[in-house]
């Protein structure tokens, strides 16, 4: 059975960017493939402190992250659906160290996210921040995951995981790891034309990020729906005076159209057609504000109905499964390396 796998860091409240770029494709794929694939949606909790976090809130954030996966529509009663915490599966760290030793420093140094994040967190650039794409490769390769639903910003890291898999398979002359699908295949598998990138509401040339300190730039999944609506109404647009989908000259407008299409499960072209020739940006903003605030009310109600006991039950199954699969793979790798007979 093939494996489809994804995760969202539990460092801050996830945003609608995380939801549309990673949760939604994963949930859709789980509905489509839970009978012919293993569906692994894990919490990459060890990735969470590659940038500074508030550790006093961290545990609660991890549990909330799992409730979010469940509220988003993952069918946890299906035996092929697994939710687990990375930190409870020690093989992730053990394999990451091994992969580190087969990853050229120059290749790891090319990761653009490291360059951007080390600029942002100048005072605290850690080895962990540099190294996290290798841990991410271990997260993927341990489970032989072929498909990894991700937003556009993470495809470079996926490519690194592919390179590591190719290098190690060649070196040890066996298929140690399943090669994750290429970006083009991943996007096709998600029924998309390209990877998704929801933009910041205050600077639509940039990605919406959950760690942004500008609250107005992002909509978090726990935002009060009325506050979220206000953020949409004050989103940065442009002075062109006509509603067009033009991500170069009107990225703010294009971003709002994309958000509307994704939340309402409509074709982007249909949303573009709805506004053809229209000039009142307020009409588009009002529609998107309404869509997003309805989504948040409904989603937050679902989250409130999931108990900590529900989470514990799901984790018990998921972590038993993950440890079994991951340990088996780690043993195979250890054997190939000569660490074990
Ligand atoms: N704006 C976005 N649009 C589409 N997809 C996005 N993702 C993140 N932002 C957007 C996707 O969400 C998944 C989880 O991301 P992550 O938390 O593991 O790391 P990230 O890519 O660094 O996400 P953020 O929100 O920008 O987090 P911070 O600010 O904490 O670094 C990934 O699939 C990502 O592509």
Helix-strand sequence: EHEHEHHHHEHHHHHHH
Report the mean per-residue pLDDT as an integer: 96
Give Rg in angstroms.
Answer: 20 Å
Biggest sheet statistics: 4 strands, parallel
Low-confidence stretches: none
Major sheet strand order: 3-2-1-4
CATH architecture of the largest domain: 3-Layer(aba) Sandwich
The N- and C-terminal alpha carbons lie at a distance of 27 Å
Number of helix segments? Answer: 13
Using the coordinates shown, work out and report the CATH topology of the largest domain.
Answer: Rossmann fold
CATH level-1 class of the largest domain: Alpha Beta
Which compounds are bound in this model?
adenosine-5'-tetraphosphate
CATH superfamily of the largest domain: HUPs
The gross shape turns out to be: globular
Beta-strand content: 5-15%
Description:
The chain is of the alpha/beta class. It has two domains: 2-191 and 307-337, Rossmann fold; 215-303, Tyrosyl-Transfer RNA Synthetase, CATH 1.10.240.10. The chain contains 13 helices and four strands. The protein has helices at residues 16-33, 58-71, 91-100, 105-109, 112-120, 127-141, 155-171, 183-189, 225-233, 251-263, 268-274, 281-304, 308-337; strands at residues 2-7, 37-43, 81-85, 145-147. The protein has a four-stranded parallel sheet with strand order 3-2-1-4. Strand 2, helix 2 and strand 3 form a beta-alpha-beta unit. Helix 3 (91-100) packs parallel to helix 13 (308-337). The longest helix is centred in the C-terminal third of the chain and has 30 residues, at 308-337. The radius of gyration is 20 Å and the shape is globular. The two termini are 27 Å apart. The site of adenosine-5'-tetraphosphate has 22 residues, from helix 1.
């Amino acid at each position: 059975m093939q494996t489809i796998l994804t995760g969202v860091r539990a460092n801050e409240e996830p945003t609608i960017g995380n939801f549309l770029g990673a949760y939604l494709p994963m949930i859709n794929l789980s509905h489509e493939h839970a009978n012919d694939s293993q569906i692994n949606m894990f919490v990459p909790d060890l990735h969470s402190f590659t940038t500074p976090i508030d550790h006093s809130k961290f545990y609660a954030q991890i549990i909330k992250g799992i409730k979010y996966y469940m509220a988003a529509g993952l069918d946890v009663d299906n035996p092929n659906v697994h939710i687990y915490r990375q930190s409870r599966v020690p093989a992730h760290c053990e394999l990451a160290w091994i992969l580190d030793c087969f990853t050229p420093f120059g290749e790891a140094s090319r990761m653009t996210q490291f360059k951007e994040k080390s600029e942002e967190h100048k005072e605290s650039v850690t080895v962990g921040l540099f190294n996290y794409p290798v841990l991410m490769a271990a997260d993927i390769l341990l489970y032989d995951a072929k498909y990894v639903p991700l937003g556009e910003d993470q495809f470079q890291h996926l490519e690194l995981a592919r390179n590591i898999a190719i290098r190690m398979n060649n070196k040890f002359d066996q298929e140690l790891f399943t090669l994750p699908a290429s970006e083009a295949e991943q996007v096709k598998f998600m029924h998309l034309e390209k990877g998704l990138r929801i933009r910041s509401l205050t600077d639509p040339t940039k990605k919406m990020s959950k760690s942004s300190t500008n609250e107005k730039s992002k909509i978090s999944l726990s935002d009060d729906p009325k506050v979220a609506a206000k953020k949409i109404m004050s989103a940065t647009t442009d002075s062109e005076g006509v509603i067009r989908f033009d991500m170069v000259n009107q990225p703010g407008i294009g971003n709002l159209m994309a958000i509307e299409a994704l939340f309402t499960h409509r074709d982007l072209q249909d949303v573009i057609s709805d506004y053809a020739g229209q000039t009142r940006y307020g009409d588009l903003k009002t529609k998107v504000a309404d869509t997003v605030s309805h989504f948040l009310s409904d989603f937050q109600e679902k989250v409130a109905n999931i108990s900590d006991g529900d989470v514990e039950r799901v984790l018990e199954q998921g972590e038993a499964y993950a440890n079994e699969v991951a340990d088996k793979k780690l043993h195979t790798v250890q054997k190939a390396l000569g660490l074990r007979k």
